Amino acid sequence: MKSFRTWNIGRIRQNLIQMLAMGRTFVLLMGLSIVFFILLGIGGLAEQSLNTSPVSSMKGLAASLSSRFFVDMVGMEIPHLDKGKKEASTFSGQHMTNFVFQLLTNVNPSDPKSLLAREVPGLAANNAVLLRNGSGNKDADAPQDYHPDSSKQIEIPNEATTPPESSDPPSTSEDHGTRPITDKVVMIYHSHPQESYNPLLGTLGDNPSTAAFDKNVGIVGTKVSKELEKKGLGALHTLADYASSVQGYNYNFSYKYSKATVKAAMTQNKDLKYFIDIHRDSAHYKKTTNVINGVSYAKLFFIIGYANPNWRKNEAFATAIHERIEKKYPGISRGIWGKTSAQGNGEYNQSFSPNSVLIEVGGIDNTQEELDRTSKILADTIAEVYWSQQKANKVDTSPKKESKNKKIAPKDTVPAEEAVPGT
Q1: CA separation (Å) from 229 to 55, 180, 212, 260, 298?
Q2: How confident is the model at residue 44 (pLDDT cuts 50, 70, 90)?
Q3: Does residue 258 sit in helix, strand or coil?
C-alpha cells in the first residue's frame, strides 16, 4: 500500500505568518537599535564640544567604578586572579544595589544628605561631582565643607606629641638636591587659612592668640613648600590670614580674598606657574586616614572648579599627581572631584594656570605626624610632575647652521648689542 502524506495548509500558512511577523519585529528592533546608537554617538560628540561641565559626562559614571570592579570582572573569567583576595567582591549584593540605586536616582544610600538635596532648594548648589575615584575612598564619599560659627569657642585639647624625623616616608621622585633651586615657580596658599586640626591645637604654646594660625592648615603648606625646595623647586608660601587682616571680613568671600593674593604674587614673581590651594576636609579620622605597612597617613582630596571653562586642563594636572600617588601609595588619594560653585568663585582661582588645583590634606582629627608624611609625599609628587613636564617641554638648544647667504661675523668679534663694558 502506498502511504500518503497529508499537508495542513492552514497550519503551514499560520506558521509562515508568525515567522514573517517575528522577522519584521526583529528588523524593526535592529533598526531602532542602530538609530539609538547613532543618536548616542552624536550626543556624545555634542557633549564634548558644547558642555564644559562634567556633571552629565559618562566620565563621572566611569570614575565612580573602582579599579576593583574591573579586576573582579576579569576575575570572573580568570579564577586565579581572585585568589587570596580579602575584600568583598564589587559584584556583591550590597555593592551592586548601592551602585544601581545611585545610578538611577542620583541618591547615595550612604549619604542621607543626597536625598534632602533633591528637595531643599540651594542644598545641592555646591554638590561635588566625582571625576576620578581613588583607592582611599571605597564608598565614593564627597568632600565635606565646613562653615565656621564665630559664636562657638574652640577648646584646646591636651598637648600632642611631635613626630620624630624618621617618620617621613622615603622619597617618591628623583632627588634634585644637587640642582640649584629654581626661581619661585610654585605658590602654596590657603583660601581658608584658619582651618585647623584638633591634635595640633594642643601645641599652641604660651600665647594661643598669636600662635594659633601657625598651627592651622598653614603648617601643611609650610611642610610642602620646604620639601619642594629640597627637590629644587622654588616655592612661595603665603600665610595671609584674611579673617584678621580684611576689614569687614566675610567667610563667603574667601576665594575673592585669596584671588587678590594670587594676582599680587604673580605680579611680583613672573615665574609662578603652579598654584596649590591647600585645605583640610571636615570629615573625621576614620575617613581621612589610611594605614600602609603599619604607618598612618592623612588622605588627600583633589578639587576642580569647573566654573573655569578650561577645567579639563586643571583636571589633567590633578590626575598626573593623583595617578602617581595611587601607584606608589595606594589608599592615600580619595579621588578628584569637581564642584559647581564656591564662596564667590566657582573656579577656585584655577583659571590663572592649568597647573592649579585645590588639595584637601587630611581631616579635623589627623595628627602632625600623619600630615607631615602625606605632605612629603605630595611635595615629592608635585616635583616629579614638574620635572617631567620640564623634560617634555625642553626646547632643542643646539646651534643651528647659518644660512649660506648670511654674513658670518669673525670669531673674535662681539656684536655691539651683546658687548659688555669692561670685557
Answers
A1: 37, 9, 25, 25, 22
A2: low
A3: helix
Question: Are 160 and 368 spatial neighbours (Cβ–Cβ below 8 Å)?
Answer: yes
Give the strand pairing for 300-305 and 333-339: parallel
Q: Which of 261, 226, 243, 201 is nearest to 380 (CA)?
A: 226
pLDDT digit string, tens, across residues 115-158 = 555 555 455 555 678 888 898 988 888 888 765 544 333 333 33
Q: Which helix (H) or strand (E) holds 79?
A: none
Predicted TM-score (pTM) of this structure: 0.65
CA distances from 275 to 56, 156, 166, 186, 385 (A): 28, 32, 29, 6, 13
Helices assigned H by DSSP within 144-186 = none
Q: What is the model's pLDDT at position 89? A: 55
Phi, then psi, of 304 in degrees rounded to 5: -115, 130
DSSP per-residue letters across 1-15: --------HHHHHHH
- Total length of the chain: 423
| Helical (H) or strand (E) element with 21 | helix 9-50
Cα gap 313→350, rounded to integer Å: 10
Selected residue with higher pLDDT from 330 and 174: 330
Q: What is the DSSP letter of 323?
A: H
Burial of residue 90, with CB atoms counted within 10 A of its CB: 0-12 exposed, 13-18 middle, 19 or more buried: buried
Determine the CATH number of domain 129-148+156-392: 3.40.630.40
Q: What is residue 222's predicted lDDT score, i.e. its pLDDT?
A: 94
| Grid coordinates belonging to 159 | 598637648
**Side chain identity, residue 285:** Y
| Residue of 302, 278, 20, 24 whose CA lies nearest to 137 | 302
CA 208 and chain centroid, separation: 34
* Residue 277 host element (H or E): strand 274-279
Q: How confident is the model at residue 52 (pLDDT cuts 50, 70, 90)?
A: low
